[in-house]
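SEQUENCE WITH STRUCTURE:
===
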Amino acid sequence: MMDWLEQLPRLAAQGPVAMVSVLATEGSAPRGAGTRMLVTADGEHGTIGGGALEFRAVEQARAVLAHAAGTWRVQDYPLGPLLGQCCGGRVRLLIEHVDPDALGWLDEAAEGRVLVSQLRPGAVERQVSDGPAMALSARGDRPREGSRLAEVIGAVRRPLYLFGAGHVGLAIARHADGLPLRLAWFDTRPVFASVAGVAVVPESGIAQCVAEAPDEAALVILTHDHALDYTLTRAALMRPPLAFTGLIGSQTKRARFMARLEREGVSADARARLTCPIGLPGVTGKEPDVIAVALLAQLLQLLPQASAMQAVAA
């Protein structure tokens, strides 16, 4: 989702490169605002959704490479009538010939920060700040010379607090790569200290990780020990509500945990927040990869329809 930040300086050092940015969309569109692709004379890196829209955007990007570095244009594409795509929405693109001498802002760019772009005659001036951002429309007047665009860098990613680095945990972490999720991964067993991304936390302190999770986090519990599962589940239900609290297990395990939680005074409202078993209903496979994909699909349903390019105007 943020590969363009790494690819841009590399490609700019090799030769002329154009950047295509989705400024705004309306209705059904292949990709959301904030999506980018980089175009050189003989290659493309990333995608804004493929099809006729991308073909036209690449054509325009190569055309802008014939002009001086810093040259930019804003293009509107009604997908149905103009391009014959069945999406039927509208897309507004910024297409620019990247100036390799004006990339100092990349040193401060990071997910969640705000990239401010000022459209100047023959140049796009950029700097990184910490906000704010506003909404940009795909209709109405196009951004013009003097317009200021302020976008949140990166897609909106939900924190995923994953407890357990066994076979299912490994599968979840593997399949989560590339999804709009930000993984925080924990286990109590020292043997997993060598697994990239896993934080080994003493059992006496792992419940504190639950307490520190942000409210928008999805928390998934699948440790090697039912007693530890229960400790983490209880901690998750006793704190302010999370976006998702999931526990791996059968209906029998759920019933036992629910009965114990009730005996220990956990309220009915809090108990109702527990998802167990985890995964989309109807996906019945027990293989780690099947469980992982079913769970991640379930978590993706939680994600808000927010765009990375939330920005704007002169």
Summary: Residues 51-64 form the longest helix (14 residues). The longest strand covers residues 18-26. Residues 117 and 296 are 34 Å apart (CA to CA). The chain is about 25% helix and 25% strand.
